[in-house]
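Here is one chain, start to finish.
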Amino acid sequence: MSIINLQLLLTGNELINGDVIDTNSAYIAKQIKEIGIDVTRRVTLADNLMGLVNEIRVMSQQADILIINGGLGPTSDDLTSEALAIAANLPLKENTKAIIHLQQWAKNRSVTLDKANLKQALLPEHCHIIHNKTGSAVGIHIQLNNCDVFCTPGVPSELKIMLNEEIIPALQDKLPKQEFLHTTRLQTFGIGESKLQMLMDKHFYNLPKNIDIGYRAHSPTVELKLTTHTKAALQLKEEWIIKIKQRLNDHILGEIKGDDLTLPECVFNQLLEKKLTMTTAESCTGGLIASQITELPGASQVFEAGYVTYSNEMKSKMLSVPYLTLENQGAVSQETVIAMAKGALKYSQADIAIAVSGIAGPTGGTVEKPTGSVWIAYGDNLNMNTQHFIIKGNRRYFQRTVTARCLDLVRRFLLKSEHIPHYLK
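Its structure:
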């Protein structure tokens, strides 16, 4: 347990009534844990002015740090600034820096500021602002009852930037100088949490006791975390990480810096580094692979076209899959996905292709091809590879698991990996 008492206050009717699932508090807790601070208390309140005022007063008297998430927007139910001002016995004033921020935000989007937008510049007098790189609402930092109060928007992407770039550095300055904690987080794929622990127990049973090890499953990846509490153990940890990377080889996606490292990001980075482009030919995944790639900023540099060919007719019409292949071998076959991949390469002029066809269920399976059967083709015109899986589970699980394995197989192809992932063993 850390010596700093940090509490969280989350606000919003949507959190209380279940319209929005709270992921922000889990993210905050995980990020500050990395610097050795634990959350000691978490409270979620509806959008009620005096309820917020009372809770802010109570929590600021108990805590060293209070992070308030939500309620900084332009609407009448966004009450955090007003509640904080009342709790601190400060007037609400137009903040010059917040006005400048709003003007720039509006200019960048070619919109006109209205009264609702300008409400976000009414902040407790003399407060410090936390810059918001993407949204309209700045964050707030004040001292209240010897407690540092940080207010952040409820939008997860905005919270993450503020937390990592401004709040966490400020918290680190408050840690006693003798306190030391260093964590290395490795993102893995293709090996389950229990299998990973068994492997670590088998090969690294003699890991020094001053290196703590932890696991966190976050489908479809598993995080391996190694933590030291002394500077003397830091060099030792780095030596053991080299050994662990050699053992886990290409199951490691990379070292996590801030947000989790994802499979689409790994594929994107490899394509970008090698100056290659990719195309997709999807049936059972319905465009999910392409969607995950195009979610990334700059995706157009590596991805120009993808094809969702759900029916046999469209497989033939759009990707030139031969009718005889579909008739004799079926849509879910090695021959069909190879033809889909080659057709996608031909029409897109991309360098790399992923093609997938399967039976997502819950119906449609046969004795020869049960529900959950899937064929994947991946590679280029000179080297096309295939894999077959039977993945049991509901339709959503099937599609997401297939998508993850498709991306991982392409990642390994781009790495020219010769290691066999555990899901093929």
